[in-house]
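It is worth pausing here to work through a concrete case rather than discussing structure prediction in the abstract. The textbook approach is simple: state the sequence, then state the predicted structure, then interpret. We follow exactly that order.
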Amino acid sequence: MVGIYDNEMKLEFVSKSSNEAFARITVAAFASQLDPTIEELADIKTAVSEAVTNSIIHGYENSEGIVKVECKLKDNCVEIQISDSGKGIEGIELAKKPLYTTKANLERSGMGFTIMESFMDELKVESIPDMGTKVTMRKYIMNDREEKNEVEDVEKVGK
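Step two, the predicted structure:
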C-alpha cells in the first residue's frame, strides 16, 4: 500500500458495545507511532470511543452491522475515519448541538459530537439517511520533544 501517507491501517468489527474498547485501544496503539503525550493519546481514545459508540447506539440501533475504522498517519497528524452503514443522520447540525440526543430514554448525554470537536483538532461528519455516517477526525501531534516539555513545564507552574 504505497500512497501519500506514512502509514495506514483498517479495522472492521461487529457493532457490539464490547468492541468499543477494542477500537479505542487499537487506534491509540497505532497513533502512538507519532509519540504523542499522554494527554494527546487520551484525547484520541475519548474521541474514538464517542464516534464508535454513536455508530453502535444510533447508527445500528437494535440491529448489528459493521463499524469500519481507518487510520492514516502523515507527518505529525493522525486522521481517523469511523463509518457505518446504519440509519444515518437527518440533521447533522442539530445532532452536533450540545445536549441534543435522540436517545433520552437510554440516559444519553447528547455530548458525543461536542466531545469529539473539543478533543480533536478537526471534525467532519458526513451522513446520508438510510445509508450511513462517516466521521473524520484529525489530531496534530507536537513532534518536538522540547516543545512538549516546555508546555508540560508551564502546566506544572500553573498548578
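Step three, interpretation. The chain has a mean pLDDT of 85. The radius of gyration is 16 Å.
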